[in-house]
Amino acid sequence: MFENYLPDITKFGIKVVLAIVAFWVGSTVIKWIVKFVRKSLTKSRLDTGVAQFMSSLVKIVLYILLIFNISTSFGVKESSLAALLGTAGVTMGLALQGGLANLAGGMMLLLFKPFQVGDYIIVNGQDGSEGTVAKVEICYTTLLSIDNKHIVIPNGTLSNVTITNVTARDQRRLEIKVGISYNADIQKAKDILEDILTEDPDTREDEEMVVFVDELAESSVIMGFRVWVDTDRYWAARWRLNQRIKEDFDYYGIEIPYNQLDVHIHK
Known about the structure:
CATH architecture of the largest domain: Orthogonal Bundle
Distance between the termini: 114 Å
Structural class: alpha+beta
Domain Mechanosensitive ion channel MscS: 100-167
InterPro entries: LSM_dom_sf (IPR010920), MS_channel_C (IPR049278), MscS_archaea/bacteria_type (IPR045275), MscS_beta-dom_sf (IPR023408), MscS_channel_2nd (IPR006685), MscS_channel_C_sf (IPR011066), MscS_channel_CS (IPR006686), MscS_channel_TM-2 (IPR011014)
Mean pLDDT: 82
Helix content: 40-55%
Number of domains: 3
Largest sheet: 5 strands, antiparallel
Strand content: 15-25%
Low-confidence stretches: none
Pfam family, one: MS_channel_2nd
Radius of gyration: 31 Å
GO cellular component, one term: plasma membrane
CATH topology of the largest domain: Helix Hairpins
Shape: elongated
CATH class of the largest domain: Mainly Alpha
Keywords: Cell membrane, Membrane, Transmembrane, Transmembrane helix
Strand order of the largest sheet: 4-3-2-1-5
């Protein structure tokens, strides 16, 4: 009895082995093709995010074609396989609506390009995620935070929230506010701030520098200034200016008061 099925079992076993070998060879070829496509797109000076997205898309399409070809080698009719794939696609589409939304979001990001690899972005409306864009793939975008953490965000989310692209422009306006005592000389404080801005190596003298009284607060007079700096020097300039303000105000006797509350007791 078993001997009657032995040729069929042997034939099926050979097909399985051949299918495994074909999948291994196909996977190797796909990896080579994807690598070649990525290099070609990079050499063409295409945006890095677009290159990553297209590479991911090519990889998925090639794997689908590989599985399709291996299945037909088992004797599965192409029409039946196409119908099966169509049904499976509808089922998976209903089950993986979020995944399809991420895919569509990736296409939107590719089309409108609100950011590119290397930009520093802030994702508003979520948990305040922010970082440098490291990868833009078919369904997800990876950010690298300032403390070297990988933040993976679905493209569907990115296409439906407000994104602040901090590094989209070559220059940024820097604004700092500081409180001084009501007893302090306001004009003297303004002169000190103007000197600080003029002497700082990162402030752009070809752009407007403004020093102003921003608010008469409860415990202090809020002084402020606005100045333009190169985007890649923003934080270095901000930290240095804050330190310089404190040092110069201390040197010239401009008090930076603590918040205080006057209590009057009526007898």
